[in-house]
Amino acid sequence: MIPYRMPHFEGFRTGESSRKPYPFPIEGVHHERGPQIERIVCLSDIHNDLVAARASLEQRGVVSHDGEWRHPVSLIITGDSIDKHDPDPEVLRYFAHLRKTAPPGYSVVMLAGNHEIDVLSRAADGEKVGLSEKKIEFLGSMDIVRKQGSVLYLHRYPSLGLVQSLWHQYRTQGGDPDTWDINRRFHEAVSVMRHLPEYSKAVFRECDDGGDGQALSGLSSEEYYRKYGSLIGRFLNEMGITTVIHGHKIQKEGGQKFEQYIPGIFMVNIDAGISSGKNPEHRHRIGSIEIAPVSDGGIEITCAYRPGIKSGQGDVRIRKTTVH
Question: How many CB atoms lie within 10 A of CB 179?
Answer without folding.
Answer: 13
